[in-house]
Automatic annotation (TrEMBL):
This is Hydrolase, hydrolyzing O-glycosyl compounds. Residues 52-342 form the Glycoside hydrolase family 3 N-terminal domain. It holds the Pfam family Glyco_hydro_3. Keywords: Hydrolase, Signal. One of its GO terms (biological process) is carbohydrate metabolic process. InterPro entries: Cellulose_Degrad_GH3, GH, Glyco_hydro_3_N, Glyco_hydro_3_N_sf. It comes from Solanum tuberosum. One of its GO terms (molecular function) is hydrolase activity, hydrolyzing O-glycosyl compounds. The gene is LOC102583088.
Length: 345
């Protein structure tokens, strides 16, 4: 009888100890930033506290797919990968080829200490146009002529669906340039020389991302569901107003002109929850936009209260010195201090 009593006592203590261990393990495994039920700001603060300087730097970098491997993603904690200049997995790559490539990069990111997923971006300015057999839509200059924002929104929805079908959650569109000189070789990327038409065509943003809920917060990025993508308003700001239409050149205009003409599409895009903004190669009155703290941090993030992230144009940081890339330390300091959150290179 005593032996049974002793065995019962031991079993009860063993069960208590086992339950305590289970609770302790669960408590140890619980991580606030991974809990989708917690408020976003709380999750961000928890993640930021855990990150090393190297991890924070890595998350601010976007590299081309040709330089990316699962090992590279893991080693450098990189935040993003893109297809630069029409770069594809292989000739006539299928949707499955794209997904397999992107999943490989993602496995490298998810196997890091904190498991932060990377985001893959691609130019999709008139459909998912880098992908074989994707639906190709007219360029912006042709869409602007039809004066039909709702059709543009439907094109955005179709583009988003085809991008997600290839595993891509982020597109570098729409281009909100206001082309003021037909000599500019990229006028086809502009909806119109009329800022009001460009503003109306920002309906591409909710087409790509979905409509912001009625209780949504102004300036806060919004992507509705897995059939939508994060959009990118570009190129901030004044890329269509350069002297003599010279590409990546200087836009000479007073502040009122810049804000009333070239800023038109950005006002409405931010209201519609655009997720990211890409900075222009061009300059405003002699100062390159990639180092213009007044316009990036002061106006975009301060006055307009944009709460998404600001990304450089492809190798835009490099072009802050001439010859390009001759003083990269200076370029990084200038670009990041101006308010650029992600460097695309």
């Amino acid at each position: 009888m005593q032996r049974r009593s002793k065995m019962g006592f031991l079993m009860r203590n063993f069960l208590v100890l086992f339950c305590w261990i289970i609770l302790a393990v669960n408590a140890e495994e619980y991580i606030t930033y991974k809990d989708p039920n917690k408020p976003l700001n709380r999750r961000i603060k928890d993640l930021m506290k855990r990150m090393t300087l190297e991890e924070k730097i890595g998350q601010m970098i976007q590299i081309d797919r040709t330089a990316a491997t699962p090992k590279v993603m893991n080693k450098y904690y990189l935040g993003s990968v893109l297809s630069g200049g029409g770069s594809v997995p292989k000739k006539e790559a299928s949707a499955e080829d794209w997904i397999d490539m992107i999943n490989g990069f993602q496995k490298g990111s998810l196997s890091t200490r904190l498991g932060i997923p990377m985001i893959y971006g691609i130019d999709a300015v008139h459909g998912n146009n880098n992908v074989y057999k994707a639906t190709i839509f007219p360029h912006n200059v042709a869409l602007g002529v039809i004066r039909d924002p709702q059709l543009v929104k439907r094109i955005g929805s179709a583009t988003a669906l085809e991008a997600r079908a290839t595993g891509i959650p982020y597109v570098f569109a729409p281009c909100l340039a206001v082309c003021r000189d037909p000599r500019w070789g990229r006028c086809f990327e502009s909806y119109s020389e009329d800022p009001n038409i460009v503003r109306s065509m920002s309906e591409m943003v909710p087409g790509l991302q979905g409509d912001v809920p009625s209780n949504g917060r102004l300036g806060v990025p919004f992507v509705a569901n897995k059939q939508k993508v994060a959009a990118c308003a570009k190129h901030y700001v004044g890329d269509g107003g350069t002297v003599k239409g010279i590409n990546e050149n200087n836009t000479i205009i007073d502040r009122h002109g810049l804000l009333s003409i070239h800023m038109a599409g950005y006002y409405s895009s931010i209201i519609k929850g655009v997720s990211t903004v890409m900075v222009s190669y061009s300059s405003w009155n002699g100062l390159r936009m990639h180092e213009n703290k007044e316009m990036v941090t002061g106006f975009l993030k301060g006055t307009l209260r944009f709460r998404g992230f600001v990304i450089s144009d492809w190798a835009g940081i490099d072009k802050l010195t001439y010859p390009w890339h001759t003083n990269y330390t200076y370029s990084i300091l200038e670009g990041v201090n101006s308010g650029i959150d992600m460097v695309s290179n």
